[in-house]
Amino acid sequence: MSGFDIHAYLDRGRRLVDAALDRLLPPETAQPPALHKAMRYSIFAGGKRLRPLLAMAAAEAVGAQPETVLDEACSLELIHTYTLIHDDLPAMDNDDFRRGMPTSHKVFGEAMAILAGDALQTQAFGLLARAYTLGRHSPERLVQVSGMLADACGSQGVIGGQVVDIESEGSSVSLETLDYIHAHKTGKLIHAAVMLGAILGGATPARQQALACYGKAIGLAFQITDDILDVVSTTEQLGKTVGKDAQAGKATYPGLLGMDEARRMQLHYLALSLAALDGYDEKAEPLRAIGRVIVERNN
Amino acid sequence: MSGFDIHAYLDRGRRLVDAALDRLLPPETAQPPALHKAMRYSIFAGGKRLRPLLAMAAAEAVGAQPETVLDEACSLELIHTYTLIHDDLPAMDNDDFRRGMPTSHKVFGEAMAILAGDALQTQAFGLLARAYTLGRHSPERLVQVSGMLADACGSQGVIGGQVVDIESEGSSVSLETLDYIHAHKTGKLIHAAVMLGAILGGATPARQQALACYGKAIGLAFQITDDILDVVSTTEQLGKTVGKDAQAGKATYPGLLGMDEARRMQLHYLALSLAALDGYDEKAEPLRAIGRVIVERNN
Fold it and tell me: Mutation test of the interface with chain A: which of B155, B164, B185, choosing the one with the most A Cβ atoms within 10 A?
């Protein structure tokens, strides 16, 4: 679509998401202040807001106003941030920096980091329920989204992926295991983001199906891109230690398949995601453009 | 009510809850097995199932069959267990034993304990959503319960209580702060248990109000009893190190008010909880009896 500026679209969306998160999270002065300060610190540590933006773009693709799912889309950012806080803990990946800033446990201590992550997860589900009290969405759709999100980020979703990732560290990993880790640790929540927008946007089952295909493909493209960036990017661009995955003995697609094959897969999944949107009109242009941005980003 | 045997009632209820938890949790063989093993280990480490039993008794009090809220009541046990796993972590209370068994991080390591706790929380909300798919409850009631549970166990509920508890360790604590810790860390989830049963059992707003009073009072009676037991019980009865709270410099009601005043408060809150049920008939007898058991227990 000529004239569509994806970067302006994403900037505007990010401002909306940031404002909504600021409005939805308890203030730093709420009791206990240290906890709410820790929750806000990680939420406002410079995320790209990809998941809420995907949800809003998916809602738009099925004919809804993106703002109608804005608050509910924030639940995805709460979940994403909680998993990052916990993944960074000394007992897990032991990362001191994230997006160029000290990680939660470095600033607030381990206990508070664990509890801030816990509370962000709780609030994600609380947000969805609150949308009923506020009359924003029907209880049928909200409970459907809540269940879908729980499946995506539970023991057979994101958390399962993180477990296998940790178990695989330092040992040689098969392509099958790498696929499992990526599909679960990263892919499930990206897929859930698209589905949240689709369901709350009122998509028919057939249209939900097409968006599910888009969501799965774009989740894989995203993770392959992450792996490639870990190899080729500079520390400054990523805001975290580069080559850390390789140093930690973590499997990556370029490491397992070579860089050429990784790049080929990256483009393959982008093409798949775009093909899934074949039946969609220009209202799906933001979704298409986000797909392209995902594989073209440099951080 | 003559002839009502609360201990037989609780035994039967516990067996129902245990069977439901076994049915609702993914099997140990589900991928990734180590995670599901850790989740099941803590869930089946000998809990009293007080919170699900309270929910079932509350549903019964408002005229529903307790079994109709059995699966949903299990979400309370998942939440309770997740908070115990995280509270026991080295970064928090650093407890090696719980209910006479090694704590999760002692058996599975810290990373797995954190993730098992995370996944149990996720599943609690997933369970409630699944009840809609299964046609067990209306989406209106389920989304209301989900929001109520999120409020109860979020940053201004259970997690907030745990934060203030940790912050207060080793310093002199006012009665106001101790009330805050107990009302949040323990009271909120016990209150939520009663309300889950009330809402899913179809209680009118007026009856919900009475049960809310019962829930608040019984939550306080429970925590005061816990504090008293920490002073007077033996290690064998409690299954954890006795006097640990006092050693850790944690404030307790007997420590702050003296044992006599603590016992007086314990009976005061039991009386309050029973008074809240004045308008209820014999179907509330299990709720009344659970209140009495809570203050008379020795572990």
Answer: B155
Smallest Cα–Cα separation from B122: which of A78, A170, A255?
A78
Sort out which chain B residues have CB atoms less than 8 A from A150's CB and list them: 122-123, 125-126, 129
On whether any CB of chain B is under 8 Å from the CB of A98, the answer is no
A35 close to B (CB below 8 A): yes
Q: What is the pLDDT of residues A22-32, one digit of tens each?
A: 999 999 999 99
The DSSP result for A5-47, as a single string, is -HHHHHHHHHHHHHHHHHHHSPPTTSSSHHHHHHHHHHHTS--
Of A114, A153, A159, the CB nearest to B86: A114
Region of B3 please: left (phi>0), alpha (psi -120 to 50) or beta.
Answer: left
pTM beyond cutoff 0.90: yes
Give the best residue of A146, A149, A167 to mutate against chain B (max B CB count within 10 A).
A146
pLDDT in tens, A167-197: 998 888 999 999 999 999 999 999 999 999 9
Size of interface A-B (CB pairs under 8 A): 173
Residue B250 predicted with pLDDT over 80: no
Domain regions of chain A by residue span: 6-296
> Is CATH 1.10.600.10 the right assignment for the domain spanning A6-296?
yes
Length of chain B in residues, anyone? 299
Q: Give Cβ neighbours of residue A240 (< 8 Å, ≥ 6 apart).
A: A95, A97, A98, A99, A100
* Contact flag A159-B114 (C-beta cutoff 8 Å): no
Cα distance between residue B74 and residue B149, in whole Å: 12
Which of B91, B146, B148 is nearest residue A114 as measured by Cβ atoms? B91
Residue the block writes with tokens 């661009």: A237
Rounded to whole angstroms, how far apart are CA atoms B293 and B181?
Answer: 23
Q: Which two tokens stand for residue B182?
A: 């107990």
Are the C-beta atoms of A58 and A73 separated by less than 8 Å?
Answer: no
In chain A, which residue ranges form alpha helices assigned H by DSSP? 6-24, 33-43, 50-61, 70-87, 104-108, 110-133, 139-153, 158-168, 175-182, 188-200, 205-232, 235-238, 244-247, 253-257, 259-276, 285-296
Residue B32 region, left (φ>0) first, then alpha (ψ -120 to 50), else beta? beta
At a CB cut-off of 8 Å and minimum separation 6, what does B259 contact?
B228, B231
Are the beta carbons of A140 and B142 separated by less than 8 Å?
A: no
Mutate to test the interface with B, among A79, A114, A138, A188 (most CBs of B within 10 A): A114
Average pLDDT for residues B17-24, to the nearest whole number? Answer: 98
Alpha carbons B161 and B168: distance in angstroms, whole number: 11
